[in-house]
Amino acid sequence: MKQSRMLLPTLKEAPSDAEALSHQMMVRAGYIYQVSAGVWAYLPLADRVLKKINQIIREEMDKVNGVEMMTPMVLPAELWQESNRYESYGPNLFKLKDRKDRDLILGPTHEETMTEIVRDSIKSYKKLPLLLYQIQDKFRDEDRPRYGILRGKEFLMQDAYSFSADQAGLDAIYDDMAVAYRNIFDRVGLNYKVIYADSGAMGGNGSQEFSAPAPVGEDTIAYTDGDYAANIEIAESQFVGEQQTATPADLTKQATPGAHSVDEAAAALDLPASQVMKSMLYMAETGDDKQAILVLMRGNDEVNEVKLSKHVAADEIRLATEEETVAVLGANPGSLGPVGVGEEVRILADRYLEGMVNLAAGANEDGFHYINVNRDRDFRVDEFGDFRNVKEGELAPDGKPLKFTRGIEIGHIFKLGTRYSESLGAKVLDQNGREQDIIMGCYGIGISRLLSAIAEQTADEHGLVWPKAVAPFDIHVIPANAKNEEQMSNAEAITKTLEAAGYEVLLDDRKERAGVKFADSDLIGLPIRVTVGKMIGDGIVEVKVRQSGESFDVAIDDLVAKIESLEA
Questions:
Q1: Does the keyword Chaperone feature in the UniProt annotation (predicted)?
Q2: pLDDT exceeds 90 at position 142
């Protein structure tokens, strides 16, 4: 392929709004082009990378009997209303109407659609299990698109759905998909972690997330040097609560003007932050019912809202507004506490508070706190539980210290159970002729996110560095002086020889200075560069490995063998 015939708009400088390394380099190297905020075009080089990733996915899906198909991107709202996700999915759902005023959405995921197809097509357990997948654009109306294609409004995804007659069938496919996804991420050259994760809006009761460590990752991963890794939302540590033995002192109210945070209250009361009780009011909503929940923590701990939500088991749980807080507790956030709170408010406390005495807490009066607050005497707790985020250095369940890193979510697998089949009526007749709900799983890879993840992990200050398995071309052939007929004719002959040996070759036939060509070559990031320069008269070319920077003078007759040895 001649580079002069490619759409390859390289840039010397990155866009001013490009924060992530992958965003900077993929724009500069001419892989992606921003059409509008969060909406990107994949230019020819990126398209070639995507096609290679897709082929790897298809090969691994074939191994686990996955069957590819395609569903529409524009979907009727009715199915999402049946599954109760039309409203609960939130503002990220693109909603639109057709000319007949029918409600439609742009699909962010396709559980409902796949369930409908199987519901109307499969009636007997004998036709199961099935594993169906597609590779397709998805749409989510991100409030704050950022980091290039890492978080956009339109993105490419492989989404797969399994349908089984029993739990054993689901478990077998789930395990197969876990292996398939590991194989895919291994083959594309990623460093990744398999972590325990929250099922979130997908529902179900089991999930694993595949996350690529990177500074711009949106998730925090808690992991150890052993076998433990989990998303911070559900990460656990070994409980090492202490029993304080001080004698309960008299409850005393003190003025704390201007103290709105735990640290400010601790300073005003001359106490360590760990002795100040953090009190946060939440509202739990289920249907039309709304309940106020006061959550109590040690002052230096953070509420984990996923753990809290799972414990409360409401449709939605959120922080109370300032108006709601004043109406329920009589004070603004920063002066809240459990003393005197009535039975109408459910009080949950983190388990680390259970053994503590003589705490400080807001007095439910702006600008005042209590000191020497003690459970049972001064306030009640309805339930204790694990409601906090773990911290680095704490011991994980495997007994090793927790470490934190940021990670890019690149894949996720879920055991959905009957979450969708039940709400949409997808049933089969079992061996006894009785109807039963189909048991489902769903599985997804953010394919366009893989480009960002790979770039984040491999790029350097000069440009992209693609692993061979997904590089848009295998070899970049560069005649140093395109005006030199000897260099140009040899470059073309070398290109044909390499292509005949099975390599994909990009020939830089542009009439540009050598320095421009070499800089662009580093930006583009192909695994191997062959430079046809002044030594061509002696039958010698230079071979350079992009990843290591190593270079070799090689005789033309030995070129294919040398490249093969570098790949071994």
A1: no
A2: yes
